[in-house]
Amino acid sequence: MNDKETAAIADWSCTVNGRAVALQLPQARRLLDIIREDLGLTGTKRSCEIGRCGACMVLVDGAPVNACLMMAYQCAGRTLVTIEGIANEDDLHPVQRAFLEEGGYQCGYCTPGMIVSVKALLDAKPNPSFEEVEEALSGNLCRCTGYGGILRAVHRAIEEGQSRP
Amino acid sequence: MLLNRRNSGERWRVRPDGPGKVTGALAYLTDMDVPGALYALVLRSPHPHARIVSIHTEAARSLPGVAAVLTHADVPGLNRFGIARQDQPVFCEDRTRYVGDAVAAVAAETLALAGSALDLIEVEYEPLPIVGDPEQALLPEAPLLHPEGNILHSKSYRSGDAEAIFGQCAHVVEETYVTTRQMHAYMETEGGLFVPGPDGSLTVYAPTQHGFMDRLQLSRILAMPERRIRIVSSPIGGSFGGKDELNVQPYGSLLAMVTGRPVKIHNSRRESVRSGLKRHPMTIRMKTGTDESGRILAHRVRIVADTGPYATLGAEVLNFATEHVVSAYRFGSVDVESISVFTNNGMSGEFRGFGGNQAIFALEGQMDRLAEAVGMDPWEFRRLNMKAADEPGPFGQTIARTDGLAKVWAAAADSALWKERVHLDISENSDIISTSSATFDPKRGGGDLPLWKRTGIGAALVMHGAGLGYGIPDPSGGRLALRKDGKIEASFGFEECGQGLIATLEQMLVERFGFAAEDLRIVIGDSDAVPDSGSSTASRATSMMWKSLSLLQTPFTEKLLTEAANCCGLPVQRLRLGPGGIWDRESGERAIGYPALAERLAEPIVCEASTSYPVPDTDIVGAHYLYSYAAVVVKVEIDDLTGRIRVLRQFHAVAAGPVMNPQGYLGQIEGGSSMALGFALLEESTMAQGQYIANNFDTYLIPTIADLSGPVEVLAIEDLPDGDAYGPRGVGEIGSVGLAAAIASAVRNAAGIFIHRLPIDPALLQEVMPIGQWAVMSDER
Ligand code: FES
Ligand code: FES
């Protein structure tokens, strides 16, 4: 926490992965730091810190957001979901399963953000076009896979979504 | 076999490290935290070249919350590091030579305090003239960056008298190829956690590709015996060669030892760009001549590499490039001279492909140009000049024989993409069409393509050496054990950088020994727990695991079966290893489970193997013995209005021995080639006056999903000659090499322009056809 921030410490609350969270923190604290440091949820990654890579992607009221670009006051009172909150109970989310089965990852550092973006896309649009997939994932950089496995995983997740009643 | 999930059947497996990765539960070393940890930052030189007049740290030290401020005066051991040659200062004493050079480091209670402390360190610099270009560094009047001069390393290889033979050549092609500084751009920046022990020991949790090398280097710096340092080096959020050399480890380690408290460092992207390694920019001048029929008679190459301020593996990269500008062609005579030069630019060093990327771009460019000069199909031209399986390697050394080169050549020739090109070339040259319209171009427009877009197909051939090469110690090995808890434990000193090493090891153990995945515990990346297997670099880890397991198979199996036979009172011959335990061949039942067997043993069963990477019988340092081969065919689309190139389709034929892990193999080729795509089309870490211009992903562009949405086919050619003793050759690098050259070739095919510089400048392609001409052309059609 930065000294300049300490001046403006205030109550902050949110729902994070279904749990109510109340913290005292500076209103300008980055959501990324709240998640990783204050809440210890390190599945959300830090990479560029300027909104270019998507490693820090989380859902804020269901919409994908780069946590490195959002400040505490901007998300106070909202519903946040991080990669740790994507799975249903003890079962993986279908998008996670698709990544696992198709091998949509290598080092895995981009993977949480990527999965969050895919989930956001498929929640909003269960049967997106190829262009819509491209657009939705253009803000998630992956240096390892060349995106081949990621595209296969997304297509599998789409197909499986369709085959569910 | 075309690699995909369907063709792989049961061999397509879920990676053991997958669940942790898709759920975010896997803690990377930069995610680690312990209570009471300090935050560290490093103060680096703002000047690419300067004399340090004075350093004052008093104000920073006295800031409350600051635990330590270190400079060169605080290094107990060697104030230098470097894998091959220790010439890079941990902290600069009196001179800085690039903008990543460290001058001081701070540990404080919070990151913000550490930042404030950095601001309070006063360093007075006297800027010195900047050597910003390797050619400039070679001028007699250039400032000397090191007492021995500005040349890190030179390498030459000569066979025959090329110079004399050019006169007899029917066709001679001369070109200068330029490649720029490419960034590894691993998503996880450098960092880690450094924990001092109460007994004066130190545990380093920081990504690296060779934990034991870090341990050696840190022991020199800390003046501490290696046995008191433990390196946990895995998992890694991407490395590609970039984290093999030390980066933040000296600072974290020194601060932890001085303060006696755990220390965390995690580089910002800007810090990573500034201090980290990049791919060597190279200027490669080639002159190559053939006879009337297209046989190459002479090949002359001059390479100048910009190695930046310090050695790291610059010499080894240059050796590799020197070898690969020759590669697998039969040149009548060869004359290569290469030089790697110190500058005040960013650090160049190890990067996936290791100098092969630049070399192959140049070499394959020559092949295309020569084919045109001779009037031959470029692929046929390559076949005419390719070496046969039993011919020597690039340096004239004996190499392991395979038919890989001929096979990848044939696979490319046979590919749908290359056939499409041949077909187009024929229709383009056919009289009937060209007389009907002088400007008709079968590559332009047509189908869904607007008139201002055209397509082209190109190909490139790659030979890639694996292992560190002759003259560099390259030992390896591993261990198998049946532990007390009943687990079969496989220990290797390798790291998981994302390549799927853990999955590959698991798959080898399952397929070779018959174990079930649940029987296994895989231990890697921890210097206290594993044998030294050498580095997880140079496409060597899969080969070395395979070799070690081959050596371990008989002794380990025999020990397990003998002990099981004793326990069960059955003859050894009736027993075999299987999932969950040892099975009776006759009854088809499990005779004893591994846990039950382990419980009855007084001592665990342990077998170790040591081996080393094969090298050729030669005296040429860096010469390789094992090679893999690839042919890449690519179709591109060029937009004449923007000059932008899109890769539409890729075909890769790779001959690297048997596929150990289909998902991993496919991923290495797809992922490697995406780096080559970036190298060809997007990526350039420009420097101006020794300063990086692009500091993050807003200005340094790497491929996105939209750049790589076209199909990628990967054909694995697995055959090896009978009696081959070396098994799988690694595929960690070869995918990153050929695509750039193939794209350049496809651009020539589409737009008639020869590319000699990467990344390809879109402005070049816009100039081909001024926009005004379109109206005329469409009228004619
Ligand atoms: S870290 Fe937030 S977008 Fe890169
Ligand atoms: S898997 Fe490594 S960055 Fe995507």
Helix-strand blueprint:
The complex is a heterodimer of chains A (165) and B (781).
Chain A: H1 3-6, E1 9-16, E2 19-26, H2 31-38, E3 57-60, E4 63-66, H3 72-75, E5 79-81, H4 94-102, H5 111-124, H6 130-137, H7 148-163
Parallel strand pairs in A: 1-5
Antiparallel strand pairs in A: 1-2, 3-4, 3-5
Chain B: H1 5-8, H2 18-23, E1 38-44, E2 50-56, H3 58-61, E3 66-70, E4 80-81, E5 88-89, E6 95-96, E7 102-108, H4 111-120, E8 122-127, H5 134-137, E9 151-159, H6 162-166, E10 171-179, E11 191-196, E12 202-205, H7 211-222, E13 229-232, H8 249-259, E14 263-266, H9 269-275, E15 282-290, E16 296-308, H10 314-324, E17 333-342, H11 356-374, H12 378-385, H13 404-413, H14 416-429, H15 431-436, E18 453-466, E19 475-482, E20 488-492, H16 501-513, E21 520-524, H17 541-568, E22 575-578, E23 581-584, E24 590-593, H18 594-600, E25 605-612, E26 626-639, E27 645-655, H19 662-681, E28 687-688, E29 691-692, E30 712-717, H20 738-751, H21 762-766, H22 773-780
Parallel strand pairs in B: 1-14, 12-13, 16-17, 20-21, 27-30
Antiparallel strand pairs in B: 1-7, 2-6, 2-8, 3-7, 4-5, 9-17, 10-15, 11-12, 11-14, 15-16, 18-26, 19-20, 19-25, 22-23, 23-24, 26-27, 28-29
One FE2/S2 (inorganic) cluster sits between chains A (105-111, 142-145) and B (187, 238, 498).
